[in-house]
Amino acid sequence: EKRTMALIEKNGYHDSVYVNAAKIFQGIHTEKRKDGIWVRYGDDSPSPALTFKDEYSQRVSYELAFSALKYQDLLEEILLASCAYPCQSIPDELTSLLVVMLYDLQHRKFQAREIFDEEPPVAEVRKIEHYLYSFRTKLAAALARCRIGHDALSIEYILPETIRKQEQRASALPLCVWINTLKINLQDVFMDLKKKGFTRVESVSDFDRYMYCVDQHCHDVLFFPSSLKEELLSLDLFADCKLLLQ
């Protein structure tokens, strides 16, 4: 299941991921007026408890929610400029779902999601998905106008400079990985990584593309170059929870 999730991440997520991401976003967003219109997210009643299938679903749900939060102003601007919001057929309680799914849709360059049948469909997710996709041309045009207005090559450049610098620093940090010694021993991990083309070095200062090192104080902790995140998560070691991304 985790292998399948890793493969479909770039083509969208399961319905349950969007539902959980919307619940998380509902609790952390800031409600404000845009162009004289309140973008409303429903009442402040406690959201139902989050239910995750596995650690991978939990991770991507939080990533999607916080990505939407980071670009909340831009996403709301796109919705208003495209006239996709407000919409009488979409209640305020689904605005969070609308925003997180819009972030994912633009991240996929407004391409349709590939639907997988491992989970039952969620009616609200399919409704919002169909609605956004019907507006995809206007949404893409609104995004393009925003980028032109900010003289930005991509949406990352629309963020305040302080946030961009924080992200650049964070992206440069090595990935920290725990070895799950309940499932595999250290030597087998080293052998498996060697077969996959990874070279063990002494420290992060020696890093090149496919290299890793062992923490000097915790021998069940490994460090990898940050650029390898997606490739690492597709390895069997991660899919089988023998390695855990910190």
From TrEMBL:
Keyword field contains Transferase: yes
Gene: Nsun7
GO BP annotation list: methylation
Pfam families: NSUN5_fdxn-like (PF21148)
Protein name as catalogued: NSUN7 methyltransferase
Key words of the record: Methyltransferase, Transferase
GO MF entry, a single one: methyltransferase activity
Lineage, broadest ranks: Eukaryota, Metazoa, Chordata, Craniata, Vertebrata
Record flagged with keyword Methyltransferase: yes
PANTHER family, per database record: METHYLTRANSFERASE NSUN7-RELATED (PTHR14663)
Domain NOL1/NOP2/NSUN 5/7 ferredoxin-like: 176-245
InterPro entries from the UniProt entry: NSUN5_7_fdxn-like (IPR049561), NSUN7 (IPR042620)
